Amino acid sequence: MEYMKITEELSLSRIIQGFWRLTNWEWNIKTLEEFIQGCVDRGVTTLDTAEIYGFAQCETQLGRVFQKNPALRNQIQLVSKTGIFNKDGFKYYDTSYERIKASCKESLQRLCCDHLDLYLIHREDPCFSPQEAGKAMLELKKEGLVREIGVSNFDPFKFQALNEFTEEQLCTNQIEWNPCCFEHFDSGMMDMLTQKGIHPMIWSSLAGGKIFTSQDEPYVNVRKKLEEVGNRHGVEGEVIAYAWIMYHPVKAMPIVGSSKLSRLDNAIKALDVKLERWEWYEIYTASGEKRLR
Ligand SMILES: NC(=O)c1ccc[n+]([C@@H]2O[C@H](COP(=O)([O-])OP(=O)(O)OC[C@H]3O[C@@H](n4cnc5c(N)ncnc54)[C@H](OP(=O)(O)O)[C@@H]3O)[C@@H](O)[C@H]2O)c1
Which residues of the chain have pLDDT under 50? Predict the structure, then answer.
């Protein structure tokens, strides 16, 4: 496994395991513990969750494992996020000073931990105050409740604004990117992160599985291209999807969302694949969304 030094104090595994879908898997604590141990055994030591996943149930289940096996907690880097809430089925965002401070403490309680390795603001909040959010995030760091801070799904304007009020301490942006999704190329975010040497965490690298299951034309075209490139390299198309993401000079860290360690192995295999530059462009243009001029 490769490890990315994202600050002087913190390195993350290049391949990260995500737990957004954990509550759908209907696992007991023993199965979850074995799965996390399987990740650690493979060198995948960074785990991603959020307070909103399973309406806090995801953090609660992870916390039961760490309570049972505190040594496991010490072997991993734990990432969580705040900012998305649900009131009687109505979704809204809250990134106010009080909410961020309270949410972090609630997450730690659920996770049965005394600190998070990385704490992110989950979504761009239209009612966002970088002054308030920045103050809360810096205080959490000073109090030792979080080691490092960052954001998720931010555009360059909101990223710069919060970075200013956190003494330039934002160390990642967790963003969506796959061969059918180019939002952060179009916003200039990828350029900004590359320039600053900030490595993004990538969610839905396989478009939530749609690249391999959807019958919609862009996904079918990408699937065929990934398989074609995979045949050239002697690996599955899924491996190529991860290799494509990791080829980019921003040095992104893909988050795997699967419940299967065999699929985590496919992401790990991608570390050994060397794509040709023209192959990267074959995949970049496969969905039809991007055309070269
Ligand atoms: N910051 C944010 O806003 C945000 C948003 C979403 C997610 N995330 C994070 O990113 C992580 C990954 O996101 P994701 O779950 O959308 O990632 P993903 O890896 O693109 O999708 C995972 C899903 O795809 C399925 N899948 C994978 N390979 C497949 C194949 N070859 N054929 C059929 N199905 C396949 C998996 O099913 P199996 O379980 O059966 O393998 C799973 O349901 C999440 O767990 C979460 O930690 C962050």
Answer: none
